[in-house]
Design a protein that fits this description.
alpha/beta, 15% strand, two-stranded parallel sheet, single chain, 13 helices
């Protein structure tokens, strides 16, 4: 049983050509991702929650795939969008692989320290006694491997199946220690924290590699949870915990992890989440193998187009930039900064005609800005 998509082999050739050129710095326009869900008249799509983890673990893999396939078949892909499926088990599910309790809610996933039953206080161990190891039989790890493998078998080279959101090293450790305890550990036991984040990084690379061994069989590149596509090994790296720590701590506990992950990736990106992470930007720009920065202003903050000096700093620092924007926000950015080096995920559904009109106007704005810049 295959999949019937509104996406042709010629579309795939265009995606591979243009995204490859973007990574190489050879695309003279922004990449623009627009998707629209258009189920056939009278058809009710099956429940396919944003968090795949909300479906019962005992649900057969084929039934899970059926649900998401119906949504993929109802989608239209405009601009530089392509068919992808993200297995969303929550940000930092690698903590679940390492023993954290995974608590699923309708719109999120929480991770709690190992020990005790759901709803009970966690039983903390001394940080010196915490040692992390690969567990091939972990129920969450096995489930994600099963679903990834089955999706690749079912859809072949028609869909890019994503890596699940493994998480960042300090984020994973915070799930195993609690955020408050890890903040104390950074001062009380920094050597132990350094040991543990090193263990997590080595395990992270193993998880990535084992999922990549499944995904690469489809031959349609890789994608993380974010809207970026790569012909090689790609991932959206992160450390949301870094919002709460100083640049010296970031340099000691996060930067080595990012460097190690970038060394095994062709196209590493970083999820810069909120103004509290801006103090770390210079160090991120210094990582030669880090290819790009995703800027997320955060809840209650001005939208991306209101951060033009920051976006300019990212681009002038030699990094690509990925953003979630409205059509108006995209226009504002390319008018002021041009389009080269940006990947803009448009947060609004459009018909084909609306999408084509918008893309023409956006590309015209980008060309006009580039011509002015070259004078």
């Amino acid at each position: 049983m295959g999949i019937n998509l509104h996406f042709t082999e010629q579309d795939w050739e265009r995606i591979e050509r243009d995204w490859t050129a973007w990574w190489a710095g050879e695309l003279d326009r922004p990449l623009v991702i627009i998707e629209n869900l258009q189920p056939p008249p009278g058809v009710t799509l099956p429940e396919a929650p944003d968090f795949t983890s909300n479906l019962p673990l005992e649900m057969p893999a084929d039934e899970v795939i059926d649900r998401y396939q119906a949504h993929l078949e109802a989608k239209r892909f405009y601009g530089d969008a392509w068919p992808k499926w993200w297995l969303n088990f929550g940000p930092g599910i690698a903590a679940g692989f390492l023993g954290a309790r995974v608590q699923c809610a309708p719109d999120t996933v929480w991770f709690a320290c190992p020990g005790g039953q759901a709803g009970e206080p966690a039983r903390q161990v001394n940080i010196q006694d915490l040692h992390l190891a690969y567990d091939a039989d972990n129920i969450w790890w096995r489930r994600i491997q099963e679903l990834t493998r089955r999706a690749v078998e079912r859809w072949g080279n028609q869909v890019t199946v994503s890596h699940t959101d493994l998480g960042g090293n300090l984020d994973i450790l915070a799930s195993l220690r609690t955020t408050q305890q890890l903040l104390l550990d950074l001062y009380d036991a920094p050597d132990e924290v350094e040991r543990l984040v090193g263990e997590i990084t080595r395990l992270w690379i193993r998880y990535y590699d084992e999922l990549y061994a499944i995904i690469r069989k489809a031959g349609r590149g890789t994608t993380p949870w974010a809207a970026i596509w790569s012909p090689g090994r790609c991932y959206m790296l992160q450390s949301d915990f870094a919002y709460m720590i100083s640049p010296p701590m970031f340099e000691r506990f996060v930067l080595p992890d990012l460097a190690a992950c970038c060394d095994v990736l062709d196209h590493g990106f970083y999820h810069l989440d909120g103004k509290g992470e801006i103090p770390h930007l210079d160090m991120l720009l210094s990582l030669k193998r880090l290819r790009g920065i995703q800027w997320i202003p955060g809840d209650g903050a001005p939208p991306p187009e209101k951060w033009l000096p920051l976006l300019k700093r990212i681009r002038e620092g030699g990094k690509l930039c990925q953003l979630y924007v409205t059509p108006q926000g995209a226009q504002a950015i390319v008018r002021e900064l041009g389009g080269r080096g940006f990947a803009l995920d448009i947060q609004q559904q459009m018909s084909r005609n609306e999408a084509e009109d918008f893309l023409r106007a956006l590309h015209r704005s980008a060309s006009d800005k580039d011509r002015v810049s070259q004078r």
